[in-house]
Amino acid sequence: MELFDVYPLNPIEIVEAKGSLVWDASGKEYLDLYGGHAVISIGHTHPHYVEKLTSQLRRIGFYSNSIIISIQKELANLLGEVSGKKDYQLFLCNSGAEANENALKLASFHNKRKKIIAFKGAFHGRTSLAVAATDNPSIIAPVNETDNVIFLPFNDVEALEETFKKIGEEISSVIVEGIQGVGGIRVASDEFLKKIRTLCDEYGSIFIADSVQCGYGRSGKFYSHDYSGVDADIYTMAKGMANGFPIGAVSISPKIKASYGMLGTTFGGNYLACAAALAVLEVIQKESLIENARNMGEYLMNSLKDIPQILDLRGRGLMIGIEMPEDLAHVKKQLLMEHSIFTGEAKPHVIRLLPALNLSKEHADRFIEAFKKCVQ
Asked: What is the Cα–Cα distance from 244 to 277, expressed in whole angstroms?
């Protein structure tokens, strides 16, 4: 059997990893500033993470959500504490797409409405509703097409107000990334997020903060939406939540009430996923990684801002986008092939930096030096 060929691959096989470094099958070292799409939050193979997972596996790895699984409650309590949302409710699932799918369903269950506002440049996942709210027609199959999703310009307060004036009573939810990832590291303005909160309150709509990529401390706050000073009704998360173990979650305002059977999952909230997620939060707390993300992000931005070849520099914390001119579109590949540094990209020519939250100054300097050589 052949693998279904949907991934364009670099000709590199990574077989070992530690911290922000990875090694290929020949023993060559690389600096990882992408972390598999912002997944590696506490560094590869962190000792506490490895011990927590292996210790749990020795006891029990899985049972269904038909019994008490105390480690789920442990995770909910610690997540509430670290995120500052202690009165919210937690639903555990398996991925960011699944988290967003359930968030959109919850909103519709809550207010019995169908219309969803999403934004140009958005990426919310590849499942039915999540992909319908994603601004990429090439990954929306005919069966996913719907008239219930309205796309508005990102950061356009006036367009948002106009739409609510026209059909506010029909709008079930507004879903927005605090920082668009696939969309090119574009930061939602505080004014924009505050206006979403105000309009959702006025019209009884649900504010969904997609924090799958921009959450979990990456921005220098737990949720990047927190910079606006307002709370969403629902937060979705996944990528950095368990450092590579599959997990997703929905953090839900107390105003949304649960009922048996409303949501469900076979694998969501399993013992191993919860152990991995607990380990991540414990390391984030103990090693002050949200502060480190903020400080190292500022250091990188300050080091890059005066490089004249950069068209635009965007982001917060360790979620950084470097927009390049077309004649320097090769720099991402050059960083990998000539300097052994993994970075990400967003179309057309944005280099995405999404390193582990414990990135060191030494590794940041290694990138800066290599980047300057590439653009000279």
From this structure: 10
Tokens encoding 127: 């499942």
Residue located via tokens 């390049």: 324
Query: pLDDT digits over 148-204, tens only?
Result: 999 999 999 999 999 999 999 999 999 999 999 999 999 999 999 999 999 999 999
Strands 341-342 and 206-210: unpaired
Token digits of residue 10: 């670099």
| Type and span of the H or E element at 309 | none
- 73 — pLDDT class (breaks 50, 70, 90): very high
pTM beyond 0.85, yes or no: yes
Strand order in the sheet with 171-177: 89-93, 248-252, 234-237, 206-210, 171-177, 115-119, 149-152
Q: Are 42 and 51 in contact (CB under 8 A)?
A: no
For residues 169 and 146, give the distance between their C-alpha atoms in angstroms, rounded to a whole number.
19
For the beta carbon of residue 44, count every other beta carbon within 10 angstroms: 21
* Radius of gyration for the chain, computed over Cα atoms and rounded to the nearest angstrom: 20
CA–CA separation, 169 and 91 (whole Å): 27
- Residue 311 pLDDT class (50, 70, 90 cuts): very high
Q: What is the pLDDT of residues 83-105, one digit of tens each?
A: 999 999 999 999 999 999 999 99
Q: Where are the alpha helices (DSSP H) in the chain?
A: 35-38, 47-59, 70-83, 96-111, 128-132, 157-167, 190-203, 271-286, 289-304, 331-339, 361-375
All domains in the chain, ordered by first residue = 47-286 (3.40.640.10), 289-351+364-376 (3.90.1150.10)
The SS3 of residue 141 is coil
| Tokens describing residue 61 | 């790895």
125-142 pLDDT, tens digit per residue, is 999 999 999 999 999 999
Q: 45-70, pLDDT tens digit by residue? A: 999 999 999 999 999 999 999 999 99
For the chain, counts of helices (H) and of strands (E): 11, 17
Q: How far apart are CA 141 and CA 37, in angstroms?
A: 24
